[in-house]
Design goal:
Arc Repressor Mutant, subunit A, 4-stranded mixed sheet, 6 helices
Length: 162
């Protein structure tokens, strides 16, 4: 079960506070790419559950401290994140191996890879590991990577569309 964005945000908040107890809600919001109000909501929830304590150090300055329960939560969320990442890696790799098998069955030894990001990188490394040559152009099959979707297009399919 993948970490929800709420769990991911909790993990990042706990990690950031552990590294910098003087982190502000604004700096946490920037790190998460969300509004300050969203960080405020997460912090209030984590405080209410006993994962974080807050201390006033100046009139308008707060210091956040992770409780032992918060450390345990951060550890559990980290392990869940690692587990989910490996699950995704294995899933992408299995898809890439299936595509490579189809490419070889059609007699090709080279492919073009279109896409960016971690999924494309796993595909690239799997192709290289399996001895397929990566080319920039030509009449090689194309592996299209868009987000978590991996699709194979053979040269004759591209010609049929035009």
């Amino acid at each position: 079960m993948p970490l929800s964005s709420e769990s991911t945000r909790d993990l990042i908040i706990l990690e950031q506070i552990e590294q910098d107890p003087d982190a502000t809600q604004a700096s946490l919001a920037t790190r998460l790419g969300v509004a300050v109000g969203t960080v405020n909501w997460h912090l209030k929830r984590l405080i209410a559950k006993g994962y974080i304590k807050v201390r006033r150090v100046e009139r308008r300055k707060l210091r956040y401290l992770i409780t032992p329960e918060g450390v345990a939560l951060r550890t559990r969320l980290t392990l869940d994140y690692i587990r989910d990442s490996f699950h995704l890696y294995r899933k992408v790799r299995a898809q890439a191996l299936g595509i490579i098998e189809k490419v070889r069955q059609d007699g090709y030894q080279a492919v073009r890879l279109e896409g960016e990001g971690e999924v494309a990188e796993v595909c690239r490394l799997t192709c290289l590991e399996q001895g397929l040559t990566l080319v920039d152009n030509g009449r090689a099959p194309v592996i299209h990577v868009r987000h978590l979707t991996i699709q194979l297009e053979f040269p004759n399919e591209a010609a049929d569309e035009h």
